[in-house]
Amino acid sequence: MALPEIWDTLQLQMHDDGVLQVTLNRPDVGNAINTRMGQELLDLWLRLTDDAQGVRCVVLTGAGPKIFCAGGDLKERNGMTRAQWTHQHEIFERVSWALVDLPLPAIAAVNGHAYGGGLELALCCDFIYASTSARFALPEVTLGIMPGMGGTQNLPRAIGDRRAKELIMTGQAFNAQQALEWGLLNQAIEPEQLLGQALSTAKTLARNAPLSVRQVKKSIRYGSQMELRTAYRFEIEAYNQLVDTEDRREGVLAFNEKRPPRFKGQ
Question: What is the pTM of this model?
Answer without folding.
Answer: 0.95
